[in-house]
Amino acid sequence: MWDMMRPAFAVVVVITAAVVPGTKSPLLVTADMVKGMSPGSVIVDLASERGGNCELTQPGEKIVAHGVTIIGWYNLASTVPYHASQMYARNVSAFLLHIVKEGKLRLDPADEIIKDTLLTTGGEIVNQRLREFYKLPPLVTASQENK
Predict the structure, then answer these.
(1) pLDDT in tens, 65-112
(2) What secondary structure letter does DSSP report for 29?
(3) Which end of the chain is more exposed for a tag (fewer CB within 10 A), N or C?
(4) How confident is the model at residue 10 (pLDDT cuts 50, 70, 90)?
């Protein structure tokens, strides 16, 4: 196993996630391997609840050993939806702030963001991708009508 892990010394981040239900997690990263890693490296041990894949993991804690940060927080994966929800809320907020100015909805078809996200207006499907999906002819813009 030592030869298999030797490339880990050249990287800065190691993420382990080997879990066997009902048993202790297999040991993948020994203390000697951690000693050989560059200072400032990080190990994220997603198997910490079952003992961890790193010999030095302290379940539920973040520690520094031999200059390497080892994160053994419990159920770290469950925190992702929270951050994803925060990011989604920030994006929706930015979008709404973009299309609402001085308390009024601004649907300027010349604005690229509005043009690409507006689906319908005045009872007509105006989004080009949606029109293609429904096999509708392309919209004729005012500039095209004047030609």
Answers:
(1) 999 999 999 988 777 777 788 888 999 999 999 999 999 999 998 898
(2) B
(3) C
(4) low
pLDDT at 7 over 80: no
Sign for the pseudo-dihedral over CA of 86, 87, 89, 93: positive
Dig out the tokens for 103 from the structure.
């308390």
CB atoms within 10 A of CB 51: 18
Residue 101, classed as helix, strand or coil, is strand
Q: Is the dihedral of CA 17, 39, 36, 66 positive or negative?
A: negative
Dist. CA 109–CA 123, nearest whole Å: 15
How many angstroms separate the CA atoms of 77 and 118, rounded?
A: 35
3-state secondary structure of 124: strand
The string of DSSP codes covering 42-100 is EEEETTGGGT-SBTT--TT-EEEETTEEEE--TTGGGGHHHHHHHHHHHHHHHHHHHHE
Helix, strand, coil shares of the chain, percent, nearest 5, are 40, 20, 45
| Tokens describing residue 93 | 């907020």
